[in-house]
Amino acid sequence: MDRDAVVFNQYRVCLMVHNRTAYLQSVNASMPTFLNRIYVFFELKIEVNNIASSMGAHAERVTKMHRRTMTELGYDKETIEKAIPKNEPIKLIAEALYKAWELYSSSSAVILIVVEDQNQNQIDQKHVEYALEDLGVPVDQIVRRTLTQCEQCLTLSPERHLFLSGSRVAVVYFRAGYTPDNYPTEKEWAARLLIERSDAIKSPWIGLQVANTKKTQQVLAEDGVVERFVGHPRDAAAIRSTFAGLWAINGDDPVTQKLIKVTIGLGNKFVRFFGGTRITAFHE
């Protein structure tokens, strides 16, 4: 095993901040009664995202908007509390990052937020920064850089400490780096490699990101794959029952081509996801 392979597995702490879990709501209709048909609603899992945790600030405000709407419609507080649970993702994300910063045990170290060159989510991201400041991280120790800038200003010490223009980095919070577009040249790949080789706490580290790719999730949905990781058949079946169907559509084999034709004919029952690998999800 080469040195880099060893280094990749020497993380002291791994931080996982889930972005969101996506579901499709499905409906099963029972036999009709005298007056109507009884419908049973349930959710099928489509995907989980665990890099570039976004829209937390927006989600909080949408929750407040829904609560206010129900208040204006005359619902009492107890009903609103049951219907719309408290939703504070910014607080949770900031607390997780702050805890990682504390665990690194270097009060002068910075939190590096890796952002896109053209950043459309900076307003959402800023709320995470404000929450970190409220928790006690000095404002000048929360730094935003693109991967291109990281290649220019990051260095790695012999002890694998990561430094940003001379300041030690405790936590790297990726709000970019999840799509090939974020790596237009070898410089960006070199920056990511340097970060991964360091002892800075990553959110997420590369292994978790790869495990979370759309392709990996599609493979997990294939027959027999979940069963490899879940010992009891009943438990595996329970997990699989929450999956919507997931299929890759980038092959030229007869099965894939047939699936594409079926998808075109029943377009209202399929959702197409775009990414490194194109995935089709079936709504049962």
From TrEMBL:
InterPro entries: Glutathione_synthase, GSH-S_sub-bd_sf, GSH_synth_subst-bd, PreATP-grasp_dom_sf. GO terms for molecular function: ATP binding; glutathione binding; glutathione synthase activity. It catalyses: gamma-L-glutamyl-L-cysteine + glycine + ATP = glutathione + ADP + phosphate + H(+). GO terms for cellular component: cytosol. Pfam families: GSH_synth_ATP (PF03917), GSH_synthase (PF03199). Residues 109-211 form the Glutathione synthase substrate-binding domain. PANTHER family: GLUTATHIONE SYNTHETASE (PTHR11130). This is Glutathione synthetase. It comes from Ancylostoma ceylanicum. The gene is Acey_s0600.g494.
